[in-house]
């Protein structure tokens, strides 16, 4: 595949010479020993044993000064968790927001972290909101700087409960103490067993299921949004859902997650064409907005984790350009918001470099349009002040 095809690798793919021992600043999310333990037992690509992880020594090999450091940014999508070898909590997030770009707010998106260990099964998810709200309160104290981390919280509620999900949503709103804005219910499903499965164990027809839709119908009356994590073949189903519920604000995560592995590995041009046509159709629904990002994940269209040195922001911008420009043209800047999707997108490079790539991609837009995509749309959709 040449470097001009959608999904093409701009830098030649090569075997890693070694992760390196250097650990620098905000990239030090893993100890060398913990990464070695993970790598030693890995059954997949030895240079990317977990697509959520990137060795700190590797990340440190690419450093850039922030472009347009005074441009306000709302990071509209990140996670927090404490997993084996992958700790990403308040201190790690705070370090990233102080890495050169002007991050004024962030939006936490659910990831199955810190659920309650006891109580009704459907209520255990409220523990995540309680945990994140505590971090948001720490940030709101001002003791750690002007950025307001986790200023909006996107949690989870089991929509298969149908009407019964209302009590979970009400508990989530209460736990968020004014910060809870909506839910994400991972819909990402593909018939291929080689495509990653997600925690909610989605089924092929969830978006058409009567009971699931009854739960979905509970969102708009509570002024709650819906973040949709899907794979690109599911875009037509999401379009149908958006048209059936025009009063519910739907946020398409990760530009619809074009898949580049498994049965899609050698079909990247075909995938891009299908994805583009479906994005244009989805954008006709005015209640849908899109997050620009998430293209660096391990099951996506790129394999930057195989490079000796992480890609530059210019490399990322050139690779992501067909996807980002398609979305901006289809949705308009007032329905687009950039996202870091950290730490999953860390597998393609450091946080400051990812934001530089987005700024390069937005360079030709007017100041007003850039303001919308980097902060304005996220502030409006997630009701940030």
Query: Please, how many helices?
Result: 11
Low-confidence stretches: 1-49
Largest sheet: 8 strands, parallel
Strand content: 5-15%
- Helix percentage range: 25-40%
Provide the structure class: alpha/beta
How do the helices and strands follow one another from N- to C-terminus?
HHEEEHEHEHEHEHEHEHEHH
Strand order of the largest sheet: 1-4-5-6-7-8-9-10
Number of domains: 1
How would you describe the overall organization of this protein?
- This protein is α/β, with parallel strands linked by helices and 385 residues long.
- It has one domain: Metal-dependent hydrolases (TIM Barrel).
- It contains eleven helices and ten strands.
- It has helices at residues 32-40, 56-59, 90-97, 126-140, 166-176, 210-216, 235-244, 268-282, 313-331, 351-361, 367-381, and strands at 72-78, 81-83, 86-88, 102-109, 148-155, 180-184, 225-228, 250-252, 288-292, 336-338.
- The strands form two sheets. Strands 1-4-5-6-7-8-9-10 form an eight-stranded parallel sheet. A two-stranded antiparallel ribbon has the order 2-3.
- β2 and β3 form a beta hairpin.
- It is globular and about 50 Å long.
- The protein starts with 31 loop residues before the first helix and ends with a helix.
- The model is unreliable at 1-49 (pLDDT under 50).
Task: From the structure above, extract its key features.
11 helices, alpha/beta, 13% strand, 385 residues, 8-stranded parallel β-sheet, TIM Barrel, two-stranded antiparallel sheet, 32% helix
């Amino acid at each position: 595949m040449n470097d001009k095809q959608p999904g093409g690798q701009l830098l030649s793919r090569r075997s890693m010479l070694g992760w390196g021992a250097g650990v620098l600043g905000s990239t030090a999310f893993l100890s060398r020993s913990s990464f070695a333990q993970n790598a030693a037992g890995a059954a997949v690509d030895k240079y990317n044993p977990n697509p959520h992880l990137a060795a700190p020594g590797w990340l440190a090999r690419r450093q850039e000064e922030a472009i347009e450091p005074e441009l306000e940014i709302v990071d509209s999508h990140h996670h927090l968790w404490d997993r084996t070898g992958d700790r990403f909590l308040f201190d790690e997030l705070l370090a990233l927001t102080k890495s050169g770009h002007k991050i004024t707010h962030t939006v936490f998106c659910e990831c199955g972290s810190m659920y309650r260990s006891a109580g009704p099964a459907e209520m255990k998810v409220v523990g995540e909101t309680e945990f994140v709200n505590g971090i948001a309160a720490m940030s709101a104290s001002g003791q750690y700087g002007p950025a307001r981390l986790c200023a909006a919280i996107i949690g989870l509620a089991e929509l298969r409960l149908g009407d019964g999900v209302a009590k979970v949503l009400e508990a989530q709103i209460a736990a968020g103490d004014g910060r809870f804005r909506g839910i994400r219910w991972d819909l990402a499903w593909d018939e291929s067993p080689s495509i990653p499965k997600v925690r909610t164990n989605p089924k092929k027809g969830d978006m058409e299921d009567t009971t699931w839709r009854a739960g979905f119908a509970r969102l708009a009356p509570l002024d709650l949004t819906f973040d949709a994590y899907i794979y690109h073949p599911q875009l037509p189903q999401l379009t149908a859902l958006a048209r059936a519920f025009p009063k519910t604000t739907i946020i398409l995560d990760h530009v619809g997650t074009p898949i580049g592995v498994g049965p899609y590995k050698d079909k990247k041009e075909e995938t891009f064409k299908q994805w583009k046509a479906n994005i244009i159709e989805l954008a006709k629904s005015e209640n849908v907005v899109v997050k620009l990002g998430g293209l660096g994940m391990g099951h996506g269209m790129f394999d930057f984790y195989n490079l000796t040195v992480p890609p530059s922001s210019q490399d990322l911008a050139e690779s992501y350009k067909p996807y980002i420009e398609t979305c901006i043209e289809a949705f308009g800047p007032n329905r687009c918001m950039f996202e870091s999707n950290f730490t999953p997108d860390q597998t393609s490079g450091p946080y400051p470099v990812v934001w530089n790539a987005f700024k390069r991609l937005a360079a030709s837009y007017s100041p007003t349009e850039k303001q919308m995509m980097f902060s304005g749309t996220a502030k409006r959709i997630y009701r940030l002040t």
